[in-house]
Specification:
This is Flavodoxin family protein. By secondary structure, the chain is α/β, with parallel strands linked by helices. About 45% of the residues lie in helices and about 15% in strands. The protein contains 8 helices and 5 strands; from the N terminus they run βαβααβααβαβαα. It has a 5-stranded parallel beta sheet, sandwiched between helices. The longest helix has 26 residues. The protein is globular. The termini are far apart.
Length: about 210
């Protein structure tokens, strides 16, 4: 079992990384393999609605989004981390997630997901909610913790002083490991993923 952790902060080893690392360490301690990726500081193009991905299964841009789309079957869980930018995830991360999820919705189904947010003071709940929307539209179970998955601080050292936030990260890691193991145990005992009806799409019209 393997979990992908995505650091959506422009600061590679900043507050978001500090929170994600706490989750990652707990997952590893509970026998779950992990991979933490950093999106970097370069711009990530947004979706241009070309629909090419619907026939190929991946975005036409040859970048980190396409790389993860091609490797998606390696991962049983996804944790998305972001700092708060005006009560929202970073624009770079949103572009990444829009393209990642648009063409892979069916392949996301059944993977477990979690959001992790870091902020200096406020905006964490709105950011947390926006990231969770990617999971709830893709048939992905969301892993909870003892509190909303956020840490507070202006610097990584501040985050390390947020004892409740770090404990929330560790609890998240334990809950994700438990859920992944439970899903695998169910699969080994003949409990398969749901078979969904053909998708019905309606428009809101007068």
């Amino acid at each position: 079992m393997k979990v992908l952790l995505i650091n959506g902060s422009p600061n590679k080893n900043g507050c978001t990384y500090t929170a994600l690392h706490e989750v990652e360490t707990t997952l590893n301690d509970n026998g779950i393999e992990t991979e933490l990726i950093y999106l970097g500081k370069q711009p990530i193009p947004g979706c241009i609605a070309c629909m090419n991905c619907l026939s190929t299964g991946h975005c036409f841009h040859k970048d980190i989004v396409q790389d993860i789309q091609m490797r998606l079957d390696e991962f049983d869980g996804i944790i998305i981390g972001s700092p708060v930018y005006y009560s929202a995830p970073t624009g770079q991360l949103v572009s990444f997630l829009n393209r990642l999820f648009f063409s892979t919705e069916k392949r996301m189904a059944g993977k477990v997901g979690a959001a992790v947010v870091s902020c200096r003071r406020g905006g964490a709940s709105a950011t947390f909610e926006q990231i969770n929307q990617y999971f709830t539209i893709s048939n992905m179970p969301i892993v909870a913790s003892q509190y909303w998955n956020s840490v507070h601080g202006r610097t990584p050292d501040d985050v390390l002083k947020d004892k409740e936030g770090l404990q929330t990260m560790r609890t998240l890691g334990k809950n994700m490991a438990w859920l992944l193991k439970s899903i695998e145990a169910g699969r080994q005992n003949g409990i398969e993923k749901p078979v969904y009806e053909p998708r019905v799409r309606t428009n809101f019209i007068q």
